[in-house]
């Protein structure tokens, strides 16, 4: 198993990506601590993991609240003895598809301030414990937002660019302490539409294009990716488990391209 006896904290553990990653981490031997705002959804993921022979615990947590994030990380470290892996998969509903002329400052700033805040708070909380133990992996999530060439993605594109830059600079700062930082850059994930905030976010873009979310993504996948498809939840979760493992021990400060070729590095 790739993550045997590892301790993993997943922020946004009831979401599509967070839940998929939690299942993958547990399948590879990690004990996972799931956090999110809705206990019922967290319990559903945890029950699936435990039913498959894994180990999971849940905590209701707002990952935008500094004191709560710090308290939770301290509690996990005290109970488990360490924190080996942290993944921030928090999803925040925001506006997409609105061009600059119609975009309010509040809608522009919301994804930037919210996503950078939660990534900063969670990384700082777990890093305090990882530095003490001299090892750890911090995983962040981004999208091709900074490289999109169509209108309507200004706020979210800047947010993703900030997360990627944050991840690379953080890797430089924490590297001497044995901590690796990797940003997972995925793209639209069709099988996440039913279990996350993504459909609501994409709805504005699709409506302005005179189509549906499903039709829009299908067309983009066929014409805008090298593989003719978008990544699946399994693609992202399985890669997250690998890169969090010791087999990827030489990798840090990287933006992992999981876009199926919608962008080429």
Concise summary:
With 265 residues, the protein is of the alpha/beta class. It has helices at 16-27, 39-51, 66-80, 105-133, 154-174, 198-208, 213-224, 233-243; strands at residues 7-11, 31-36, 55-60, 85-88, 136-142, 179-185, 254-257. It has 8 helices and 7 strands.
If you had to describe this structure to a student in words, what would you say it looks like?
The protein is of the alpha/beta class and 265 residues long. The chain has one domain: Rossmann fold (3-Layer(aba) Sandwich), CATH 3.40.50.720. Helix content is 47%, strand content 15%. The chain has eight helices and seven strands, in the order βαβαβαβαβαβαααβ. The chain has helices at 16-27, 39-51, 66-80, 105-133, 154-174, 198-208, 213-224, 233-243, and strands spanning 7-11, 31-36, 55-60, 85-88, 136-142, 179-185, 254-257. The protein has a seven-stranded parallel β-sheet with strand order 3-2-1-4-5-6-7, with helices on both faces. Strand 1 (7-11), helix 1 (16-27) and strand 2 (31-36) form a beta-alpha-beta unit. The radius of gyration is 18 Å and the shape is globular.
Sketch the major β-sheet: 7 strands, parallel
Structural class: alpha/beta
Give the helix tally.
8
The percentage helix is 40-55%
SSE topology string: EHEHEHEHEHEHHHE
Question: Looking across the biggest beta sheet, what order are the strands in?
Answer: 3-2-1-4-5-6-7
Morphology:
globular
Rounded radius of gyration (Å) = 18 Å
| Secondary-structure arrangement, i.e. CATH architecture | 3-Layer(aba) Sandwich
How many strands appear in the DSSP assignment?
7
């Amino acid at each position: 198993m790739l993550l045997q006896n590892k301790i993993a904290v997943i922020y946004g553990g009831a979401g599509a990506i967070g839940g998929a990653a939690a299942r993958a981490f547990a399948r590879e031997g990690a004990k996972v601590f799931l956090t999110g705002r809705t206990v019922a959804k967290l319990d559903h993921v945890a029950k699936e993991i435990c039913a498959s022979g894994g180990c999971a615990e849940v905590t209701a947590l707002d990952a935008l609240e500094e004191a709560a994030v710090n308290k939770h990380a301290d509690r996990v470290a005290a109970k488990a003895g360490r924190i080996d892996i942290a993944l921030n998969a928090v999803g925040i509903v925001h506006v997409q598809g609105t061009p600059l002329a119609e975009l309010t400052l509040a809608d522009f700033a919301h994804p930037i301030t919210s996503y950078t805040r939660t990534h900063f708070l969670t990384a700082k909380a777990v890093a305090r414990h990882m530095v003490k133990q001299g090892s750890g992996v911090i995983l962040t999530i981004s999208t091709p937002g900074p490289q999109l060439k169509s209108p309507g993605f200004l706020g979210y594109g800047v947010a993703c660019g900030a997360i990627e830059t944050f991840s690379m600079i953080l890797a430089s700062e924490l590297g001497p302490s044995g901590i690796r930082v990797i940003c997972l850059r995925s793209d639209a994930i069709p099988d996440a539409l039913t279990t996350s905030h993504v459909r609501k976010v994409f709805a504005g873009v699709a409506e302005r294009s005179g189509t549906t979310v499903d039709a829009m993504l299908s067309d983009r996948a066929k014409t805008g990716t090298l593989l003719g498809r978008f990544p699946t939840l399994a693609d992202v979760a399985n890669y997250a488990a690998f890169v969090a493992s010791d087999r990827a021990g030489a990798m840090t400060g990287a933006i992992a391209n999981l876009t199926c070729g919608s962008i080429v590095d």
